[in-house]
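User: Quick one: structure for sequence A, then sequence B.

Assistant: Sequence A:
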Amino acid sequence: MIGEIIEEVGTMPMGEFMAHKQSARSQPLGSLESNALYDVVGWSVAKFLESEKCEICRRALVASGAPSETGLYTEVRSHGGLTHPSPEILQAAEMAESVFCSQKHKFHKMADIEKNMTEQVMAILETLDFHTGLPDCHHALDHVMRRFVRLRVNEYASTATAMQVPKKQYGSKTACRTTIIF
């Protein structure tokens, strides 16, 4: 499965991959989805930085300066406490989201969805030489993407489970026959 995706992506230039990514999704990310992605990636980066106190990783993963238009939602609810992801890690998450969306229809056939999705995302990011822009000292991209994929799979499973219509339970025919209502 990973081989199919890598063959499909091949050695595309980044611009061509981004066009391919948009065609893989039914629609481009709207402002709501972009804000949610920004918020979730910021959380993923913050969790990684809690465990790794590396200043090099912090500078590479956290945005410096004012947030982009996408980060305004996070800025409003932040009060200075939420992490704003760097544009590089946000672009990696957008690629991961497009891979996730393109593979959703196969989830019911996958044995270990989280592991398979993480491998696919990392294979594509490696194919696009995405590791070159981020430090390798603590494998920051791997950890952040693994946490992002875990959260995304859990969210998808919760949504899919909630959408199932619960079956109504009725008493048996025998119980109905023997019950006398006065």
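Sequence B:
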Amino acid sequence: MKFRMAFFLMLTLLPAVFCRNDDRQTTEPLSHDGFSSFTLNQIQKFAAIAKTPEPIILEPSGVRYWDAPKDKGESPQKSKLVSLEATVYSEDGRILLSTLRDRTPIRYFYDEGMMPEVFDKAIAGMKPLGRRLIIFPKGSVKLHEKSSESERLVFGAGGQLIVNVTLLWVRDSERDKLVKFK
């Protein structure tokens, strides 16, 4: 009986002593540019479809992006209406915004102050159905007084933001067409 008890204790306690559970979460910063392991995982997944294995870095903000472009269609230009599908993650992997989940794409007039300036710069040059993985470092997004509640929730979260964007379409705004007929 004592042998069985000792054997049982040995089988249950020894693995706990020698094989301690690694309590580190997957968000612990790694050595690669200070990115969390979640961020590195997203970069690795996106790199499989990206045509740019190295990131494009926007100065002076430090925003980085990887591109999976499409060749047809028109890029966003000032005052054009754009529609985007986006999923925004915090650096620990929480989803802050998902237009796919909510089934409501983002629509706004490009480069008219409706989104943070650094976001407009990050999607510049995209073509319809092109995809881009954008990483906004902490403090790179500057909000203005006219920022919406949802914009403040997403971009004001603090910390690094990982945004996976698909540009759906670019169109002339209806308001421009109305002005032409006056």
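Residues 28 and 34 are 9 Å apart (CA to CA). The chain has a mean pLDDT of 77.

User: Thanks, that's what I needed.
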